[in-house]
TrEMBL record:
The gene is recF. Residues 3-358 form the RecF/RecN/SMC N-terminal domain. HAMAP family: RecF. It holds the Pfam family SMC_N. This is DNA replication and repair protein RecF. Belongs to the RecF family. The RecF protein is involved in DNA metabolism; it is required for DNA replication and normal SOS inducibility. RecF binds preferentially to single-stranded, linear DNA. It also seems to bind ATP. Its main location: cytoplasm. Residues 393-407 have a biased composition (Acidic residues). PANTHER family: DNA REPLICATION AND REPAIR PROTEIN RECF (PTHR32182). Residues 374-413 are annotated as: Disordered. It is found in: Cytoplasm.
C-alpha cells in the first residue's frame, strides 16, 4: 500500500495543505516546530484511529476550529481508495470511504501504517500505558473490529468505575452492591477478548522481534515479550507480581475470580483494579527486564525492533502489501551504525516517509523525493512535477476543497 496524496483541513498548524507522495522513500525536511510530524500524525491516525503524541483528538484540531479533516488517496495494487475522517473537538468523529459515509473503525481496513518516532523509547522505558497503547494500536491494524471492542470495553470500564466511586461515597460494602454484577459480566466478556488478542499478538511478534533486534543491534540478546495479567491476581500497573490467586482455568474464569477477590479493595479505592487496562507488556533482553536494566542503545534497539516486527507481521498478513513506514525524526536519535542498519532494512518497503530537521541525518538509501516544510507551507523540490501547495484547492477529485468539507463534512458513523 502507498499513500499517493494527503490533504488536510484545520489539522494542527495547517489551515489547509496538500502533499503528493511517491513509491519508495519520501523525505520531509524542516526545522523543529514547522509541521513535519503533523503530516505523519495525520497519516497514522487513519491507520490506528489515534495519535502517537496525545491521548485525545481535540489537540489535533486547529486552534479556534471545531473540527479537522484528514483525507488521503491510497493505492492498493491497481486499486485506489479515497479515505477521509472528520476529527471533532467534541462528539464522535465521522468518516467517508470513496465518498460514502462509513464507520470510523473501518478506516484501518484500508490504511496500513507503521510509525517509528522518538516517543517509541517510552514503549520500553515508560509506564505500562505506553506499552498497552502500542499493543492496542497494532491490534486495531491487524484486526480492525478490535477498535469497536476496545471502545466498548472503555465505555463499560468508565460506567463500572463510576458505580464504584458512588458506592465508596455512600459507604456501601461489597456484598451490598449487587448492581456491580451486571457490569462485571460485560467487563469480563469484552476484556477477555482483548486479553486473548493481546496474548496472540505477543506470541506472533516473538519471531519477528528476535530477527529485527539482531538486524538492528547486530547481536542476539534474546529479546522476549510476554503479558503480565491483572486477572492472575497481581497488579502489573503497580508492580505487584501474579501471586495472589490460583491461576488455573480459562482467562474468563480467572477474570471473574480476580474481580470477586478485589471487590472490597475496588470499592475502597473507587477504581476497577482488574482487566486489560491494568496489564503490562513485559520486555526482556538477556533475560532481564528492559525497563531498569537495558542500556540506552539496547532500549532503542528494542523499540525499533518492536516497530520492525509490527511491520513484518502486517506485511505477512495483509493482502494489501507492505504497510507504509513512517520514520519521524528517528535518525537524529540514533548513532551512525544504527542509522545505516535501519535505513538498509526499511528501504525495501513499498513506501517510506522520513521526517528530519537536518537533511544530512538521512542515510543515502532513503534520501530521495525531498520536500521542504516551513511554517505549515509545503514546497516540493521536484522540478518535473506539480508542486504541493498550502492554502489552495486540493486535487482529490470528488473530495472537494476544505471549504466544502466544512459545509458538509463526512457523514456520521
Amino acid at each position: 500500500m502507498i499513500v499517493e496524496h494527503l490533504n488536510l483541513g484545520d489539522f494542527r498548524n495547517y489551515a489547509t495543505a496538500d502533499l503528493t507522495l511517491h513509491r519508495g522513500p519520501n523525505v520531509l525536511v524542516g526545522s523543529n516546530g514547522q509541521g513535519k510530524t503533523n503530516l505523519a500524525e495525520a497519516i497514522v491516525f487513519l491507520a490506528t484511529l489515534g495519535s502517537h503524541r496525545v491521548s485525545s483528538d481535540a489537540p489535533m484540531v486547529r486552534d479556534g476550529r471545531e473540527f479537522a479533516v484528514v483525507r488521503a488517496r491510497l493505492v492498493h495494487g491497481e486499486r485506489k481508495v479515497l479515505v477521509e475522517v472528520q476529527l471533532n473537538r467534541q462528539g464522535s468523529n465521522k468518516a467517508r470511504i470513496n465518498g460514502s459515509p462509513s464507520k470510523t473503525n473501518e478506516l484501518p481496513r484500508y490504511a496500513h501504517v507503521v510509525l517509528f518516532a522518538p516517543e517509541d523509547l517510552q514503549i520500553v522505558r515508560g509506564d505500562p500505558s505506553s506499552r498497552r497503547r502500542f499493543a492496542d494500536q497494532l491490534l486495531i491494524q491487524r484486526t480492525p473490529r478490535m477498535a469497536g471492542v476496545i471502545a466498548d470495553y472503555e465505555r463499560v470500564l468508565r460506567q463500572r468505575t463510576a458505580l464504584l466511586k458512588s458506592a465508596r461515597a455512600r459507604g456501601v460494602r461489597g456484598e451490598g452492591l449487587s448492581t456491580l454484577d451486571v457490569w462485571d459480566d460485560k467487563l469480563i466478556s469484552l476484556g477477555s477478548e482483548i486479553i486473548h488478542a493481546r496474548l496472540r499478538l505477543a506470541s506472533d511478534l516473538q519471531g519477528p522481534l528476535t530477527e529485527a533486534y539482531a538486524a538492528i543491534a547486530g547481536a542476539d540478546h534474546r529479546p522476549q515479550l510476554d503479558w503480565a495479567l491483572s486477572v492472575r491476581g497481581g497488579d502489573p500497573e503497580e508492580g505487584e507480581p501474579d501471586a495472589e490467586l490460583d491461576v488455573r482455568g480459562e482467562i474468563e474464569e480467572q477474570f471473574r475470580a480476580a474481580l470477586q477477590a478485589k471487590r472490597s479493595k475496588e470499592i475502597e479505592r473507587g477504581l476497577t483494579l482488574v482487566g486489560p487496562h491494568r496489564d503490562d507488556l513485559i520486555l526482556r533482553v538477556r533475560d532481564l527486564p528492559v525497563k531498569g536494566y537495558a542500556s540506552h542503545g539496547e532500549s532503542w534497539s528494542v523499540a525499533l525492533a518492536l516497530r520492525l516486527a509490527s511491520a513484518e507481521l502486517l506485511r505477512a498478513e495483509s493482502p494489501a502489501g507492505d504497510p507504509v513506514l513512517i520514520l519521524d525524526d528517528v535518525f537524529a536519535e540514533l548513532d551512525a551504525d544504527r542509522r545505516q542498519r535501519l535505513a538498509a532494512i526499511t528501504s525495501g518497503y513499498e513506501q517510506v516517509i522520513v521526517t528530519a530537521a537536518v537533511e544530512g541525518d538521512i542515510p543515502e538509501p532513503l534520501h530521495r523525493h525531498v520536500v521542504r516544510i516551513h511554517a505549515g507551507t509545503i514546497s516540493d523540490e521536484r522540478p518535473s512535477s506539480r508542486s504541493a501547495r498550502s492554502g489552495t484547492e486540493d486535487d482529490l477529485g470528488s473530495a472537494g476543497t476544505e471549504e466544502e468539507a466544512a459545509d458538509d463534512g463526512p457523514a456520521a458513523s
